[in-house]
Amino acid sequence: MRGTNRTPPSGQGRPVVAVLGTGTMGEAMARNIAAAGVGLRAWNRNRATAEPLADVGAAVCDTPAEACQGADIVLTALANEKVVADVMDQARDGLGGHTVWVQTCTVSPDGSRRLAEQATRLNVAYVEAPLLGTKEPAVAGTLTILAASPRQEAREEVRPVLEAVGKRTVWLDEVGQPSSLKLAYNAWVLTTVEGIAESLTLAGTLGVDPPPGHRGH
Question: What domains lie within the chain, and their CATH numbers?
Answer without folding.
Answer: 16-178 (3.40.50.720)
